Amino acid sequence: MKTTPLTAVHQELGARMAEFAGYNMPISYEGIKEEHHQVRSGIGVFDVSHMGEFIIRGRQALDLVQHVTSNNAAKLAIGDAQYSCIPNDKGGIVDDCLVYRLPEDMCAAGEMAFMMVVNASNIEKDWAWIQSQNTFDTAMIDISGDTALLAVQGPKAIGVMQPLTEVDLAGMKYYTFAKGTFAGIDNVLISATGYTGAGGFELYVRSDQAKALWHAVMEAGAAFGIKPIGLGARDTLRLEMGFCLYGNDIDDTTSPIEAGLGWITKTKKGPFISREVFAKQREEGVSRKLCGFVLPDERRVPRHGYAILDEAGEEIGVVTSGTLSPSLGYPIGMGYVANGAHAPGTTLWVQAGKKQLKATVAKAPFYKPGA
Description:
This is Aminomethyltransferase. It is an enzyme of class 2 (transferase). Substrate binds at residue 202. Belongs to the GcvT family. The chain is α+β, with helices and mostly antiparallel strands. It contains 8 helices and 19 strands. A 6-stranded mixed sheet has the order 10-11-12-9-3-13, with helices on both faces. It has a 6-stranded antiparallel beta barrel with strand order 14-17-16-15-18-19. The chain has a 5-stranded antiparallel sheet with strand order 5-6-7-4-8. Helix 2 (32-41) packs across helix 7.
């Protein structure tokens, strides 16, 4: 199993460790429910150093990024980030990703630079795919092994982090970033992004600086009650927001149009992989749609792979993600259903063994912070 630069730290803290995407990762420390509430109401820090990072740099860097991703990277100014996906040539999704438009201080004249952040389980697959598409005057550099990533998430994030940097964190808009000194460490990429819906930042540093950064954040957050958070709570937090998880809700066989990711699929931006497939789906419609649903009268959780039935008892889909929402106190889930059955308010039934669980289609996010 692979490790992150902070694996020993998690073990010293008594984390429950398990394999995730080939890495020995902390799943929980005190418990998923407690850690979930900690991030929703206070502040927590996640080690997500298992994620992959690719630098795309050159005269045709934008051309390559535009070709292999679905969103319109031409709209990014330096300091902007965007959520996107990497389509395959059959209309499926190789991966979902973040795309950052980097400063050009390391570029020669006429060059641009981007960073693509990809899922840990897909690093090798994504690299091979993008490299196979790189017919452009552009270099690709895999910095995954040299990069650590901490996600400092929760409504108290700015209060904890601002004393550690001169970058104006409160002035940063969602999906922007800045490079600067953080906790005495130079060249930290501070990104106003996250996978929790609780607010906060993600910090990219060199792997050999990860421990110093972790300890600095934990020390600065002590007065605010900061705690380490595992991947278990990361999953419940993202599901309350309706954020897709690759391998569950999206994969090589699902289209972004089916998955409700039409907003990051810019078929009018110009040519890109599977553009024609998506344009046709957008025009003609698709046979299935990813939807969210709630089960306020149930206690049993809908699990990945459970069948979804309509009111007549006909199988019309499958559950992709499910959990007991710590914020709401009842089960929630996501799954693909036949087009037409995804309208909010529609009654569905989830087949859980011999029992059928009553579910109602609901629009994400299921939980609205502050509501």
